[in-house]
Predict the structure.
Amino acid sequence: MYAGRQVAVMAMTSPALQGALQAGIGAISQVIPDTRPPPYSRASVGIAMKPLPEPESLRRSGSFGLPDLAVILGVLALLGLVAHVGAGSMVSFRPPDVSPTVSLDPRNLPDYAARSTLRMFIALVASLLFTLIYGWLAAHNRRAERVLVPLLDILQSVPVLGFLSITVTGFIALFPGSLLGLEAASIFAIFTSQVWNMTFSFYQSLRTVPKELGEATTLYRLSRWQRFTRLELPSAAIPLLWNAMMSFGGGWFFVAASEAISVLNHDYTLPGIGSYVAAAIAAQDLPALGWAMATMAVVILLVDQLFWRPLVAWSDRFRLELSASGDAPESWLYDLLTTAHIPRLVAAASTPVLEGLDRLMSALLGPVQDREEEPAPPGQERLFNLALLVLIGALLAALIHFVLTRVGLAEVATVFRLGLLTLARVSLLLVLASLIWTPIGVAIGFHPRLARLLQPLVQFLASFPANFIFPFATLFFVRFQIPIGWGSILLMALGAQWYILFNAIAGAQTIPSDLREMADDVGLQGLQRWRKLIIPGIFSAWVTGGVTASGGAWNASIVSEVVSWGSTTLAASGLGAYIAEATGRGDWPRIALGIGMMSLFVVGFNRLFWRRLYDLAESKYHL
């Protein structure tokens, strides 16, 4: 039960909830015989996983129908589109040759949008694989956690332009004579804008898995692989899905920077909707910018209907509760797939392969430990700490020497002051975004009907690249003489506030319906309901949203503190503007100084503030 005292007392006195946490254990034990189970025995998902719907058409053995035809045509169309778009990446390119140019003819926008969308999905797949591996290691290995979690803070703090400055030349050299090098650099830049939010969410979900369910996996001698697939991955499914949606939307924010690359005094352009917008801004072509915004809106709506909405409907089966939610999310595509015969046949044909993989991974990873990881001997622990300190010290010394010998101590102090200004903007943004979007997220998460109405709008607002409207904001700021120092807060919020909203929605959806019904029965209303049920219930998710929103705001400061329209440029005093200007000039010492200072602020803030909230969420506010 949630750690709030009143919630715990009410849970213990409610017969409907006395076995709430035992529901998952019961789901595991129902599929395992009463006799002693053999090692690595198979078990179904242990957290109230709802069965797939079985329409009447599936219970009848009949011929294929229109749903199957629609599935076949849809798959063929998707494969054809991917092949057509991917062929455009195989052209020849040898620097310093001029990279492909972008035409402002609106008829090219469908092709540009398809190429950008394919890059986004490739980056999303890579982000998911990284998340599952990195998050699992950080959550299950004490030594790895001490290295990986601070490293994740640092990586999150490095701006996308910083990654591009370091990697673009290497990717071009990796694929000599081909445009694939630039494509890989662009995808990697999008990857760095998506992955950290997903990894933080998955790591936090693994750390807050109910202990009773973890003990059940040990009792029934499941392997680490089976624990991961039957318990941990399902329990993290809903938060991970909503954070993946947010990360995908956040990736659109940096698609222009990843396709119209201007680093180290070199300009590289990849055909895509982001580079189209960059070209329209440079040409001050308002009609072209309008066409790009309309195309972007269509892309977001299609991705929501064809990808995210079916996943949301599917993920409802992973809710941790005794009773099903009264009004489950719906998706016409999900209904189509569950009605057609072909997906069921594909699943049946792949079952032997998946079972073989399950046995192989179970044998490789071994069983779940009967007890928590034993502490290392004092000598080994001291040696590990010493090696870690030496490595960190050497890296810091090299960075400090490089910066001080090239820019001087006075500029370091100036950059630190610029960092304080950006920190103030980020902090104000987090406070306002939490006050505005947390109640809205809870309302959406508690009411599936409201979610069906607002999810497309929320997904659209979060996914629409805020920097597409920066030119209009620039004209607005100039027209009404609004200082860019204040205006940049609004621009940063357009890209970072959605992390808090999406995590609030995910946190509210993971609160069991039983607890909410119990709160209604005992008359919890208003502020008391927030204190006793909602805040404890969403606290862990809100912390994840706050951490990623903070990192997203720092990253967004790069493009928010310097905005332009044609020859008109507005620049705020801040660390983001400093890094953007140094990157455009190819000034390596100042790039290193700016990125290092931003990492110092982000990591320091995370260690002093967010880490303590993480510990509180793990020890007190979780099921």
In short: The first helix runs from residue 5 to 13.
